Amino acid sequence: MQVDELKEHISSYAVELLKERGISKLYPPQEEAVRRGLFSGRNMVIAIPTASGKTLIAELAMIHEVIRGGKCLYTVPLKALASEKYREFRKWSDIGVEVGISTGDYDSRDEWLGNADIIVTTSEKADSLVRNQAGWIRNISMLVIDEAHLIDSAKRGAVIEVLVAKLRKINPSLRILALSATIPNADEIAEWLNAELVESEWRPIPLYEGVFYPGKILKLNEGGVIEVKAGRNVESVVKETLEEGGQVLIFESTRRNAESLAEKLSSVVRDYAEDCSDLAEEVLIENEGEMSQRLARCVRYGSAFHHAGLLNYQRELIERAFRERRVKVICATPTLAAGVNLPARRVIVKGIRRYESGMGSVFIKVSEYKQMAGRAGRPGLDSYGEALIVAKTRNEAVEMMERFVLGEPEKVTSKLGSENHLRFHTLSVIAEGIANTLEGIEDFFSSTFFAYQNEFTMRWEIQRIVLQLEKWGFVRSDGTIVATEIGDLISRLYIDPLTGYIFKEAARRFDNLTEMALLHLICRTPDMELLYLRKSDEWVEEEAYAFRDELTYFPSYYSSEYDWFLREFKTALCLHDWVNERDEDVICSKYGIAPGDLRRVVETAEWLFHALERIMEHHGNGLSVEVGRLGERIRHGVREELVELVKLKWIGRKRARKLYNAGIKSLDDLVEKRSVAERLIGKRIVERVLAEHRR
Ligand code: ADP
């Protein structure tokens, strides 16, 4: 089908724009979606492989919707994906379609998005916008769920179902378009959503899968499994691809493996890559710590590693350089497969096992493997893609072939049934006034995918949760169930009710807490991501005893909670070093974390301090002022006296310290002692700061 045939649905302007993007003909699954009623107002589930054009299907549907006066919400699982989609969709502004993005603070309403026709956001942020009753939410006429198979995710899946149920309640004629990887039970998702199902295995570039073992590759071809000759090791397989002008993406199970393989491969890759010294310098722009130095050394020769310990700018840099084909090889942890779209001619899955606590080494899921394998083949560059699992022996290779290459991905199952998800969403259902009886709450949950998949009643579970929420003071129940003021606040703050309870109790009991006690308090909540304890971390216990009298909680050595407590304390101590201006690299090596981990801990802490401040305020507890100040210090990683300086753009913790020590404590001082400042932090920076703040 030619895109010209879409004029009546999306306007000739839109068709012209597609052609400018080089899209003149629809891919077969796209054509099928159109034939099956993409423009007819039906709900649809599209379950097709990666890179087979799901996003374009959504774009067509959304443009059609916008032309008819509708408003679309496009939800993705990660912030990074939201930015990627936002950049893509912004092209539509050329024909007057307003595109917005919302990924900011959880308790804001982002009312300016009222004018946007298409809004890109994460599922969590979308749910928080519903909770905070953003005025424009009721105008949403179409919901697009990207990566809908992630309903299966233990951590982030439940929110997708609840969001669907809530938006359908707000607008019963809401149209839903769910985009998913190929999964065996897409039909269930379609039936739950009352949607037309478009399923296909079609790919724009053929994908060949196989298993490598030293000297050979077992390959699955149209005719069946064949055995072909290959090199002795992974390096030789990589080399072969580079010789043919292709790029390689390698998945490892751990960060450490990804890093050392990238280092090892850089001596192979350097013969095939141009000089990337400029990129290596860029890697070090904001951080020169050990990990960044390692990354820079690899990148210089066109090899890189990619994992959650990298800083955002480093990840984006590596992704861009790979797309531009300057970086030839990326060794990544599986997080990359779930994230941005980064195809390569060859995908090598080295980490086919993963360590799980209590279970040791286990095989990854077939669906995870398929997600990685699906990244093989770059549209427009490669005539085929190839995915290879790495095995040690022929026997193992045969086993891998059967389990993964020929295996069927697991079914997607709802994760809403777990107590913490149910508790979290039950409070919001009550606070938003969606339901005010047990039957009403049950009725609400009966429209979720969980209820679709499970026949048993949720009545008892819900009753227990409501009782718990009542005990905590978040709901009142005398015939009807309503949220108390604090319950409503907690729902809007988007924190776990248990976190809310811990904060509420602290607000009630204490009017004086030290810095360390406050830091430990937020680390006691289920919303904090805790650092792990290493064998060499005995010092944590010693430090904990030194702070023993200050903390709000200190379990006995014999308590089953003791080890967990040490993790909480270690995380709090890390934040303590951060707000007391310990050097970032020193912190990273002391706690055994990477810069990206530190940023995540800091970001979560900042959010929790904001919530704690609001709850303290609500209780009229004067500690709220201190909490607010500490939150500000966490954001910037500084002592109190630098807060004013770090609020200035371009002034980070290091520059602020230099200025402060020279007696420059504010913007006025900076103006007055300009030459001193220029000597300390550079003329260009001072100029930028003044241009920004002295208009
Ligand atoms: P998915 O969302 O299914 O992973 P994308 O929508 O990102 O895949 O599509 C992958 C690439 O294919 C994108 O670069 C997109 O512009 C391109 N593409 C999609 N549809 C077409 C088409 N009909 N013709 C040419 N290129 C297309």
Automatic annotation (TrEMBL):
InterPro entries: DEAD/DEAH_box_helicase_dom, Hel308-like_dom4, Hel308_SKI2-like, Helicase_ATP-bd, Helicase_C-like, Helicase_Hel308, HTH_61, P-loop_NTPase. It comes from the Archaea. It catalyses: Couples ATP hydrolysis with the unwinding of duplex DNA by translocating in the 3'-5' direction; ATP + H2O = ADP + phosphate + H(+). Belongs to the helicase family. Hel308 subfamily. NCBIfam families: PRK02362.1. DNA-dependent ATPase and 3'-5' DNA helicase that may be involved in repair of stalled replication forks. This is ATP-dependent DNA helicase Hel308. It comes from Geoglobus ahangari. The gene is hel308.
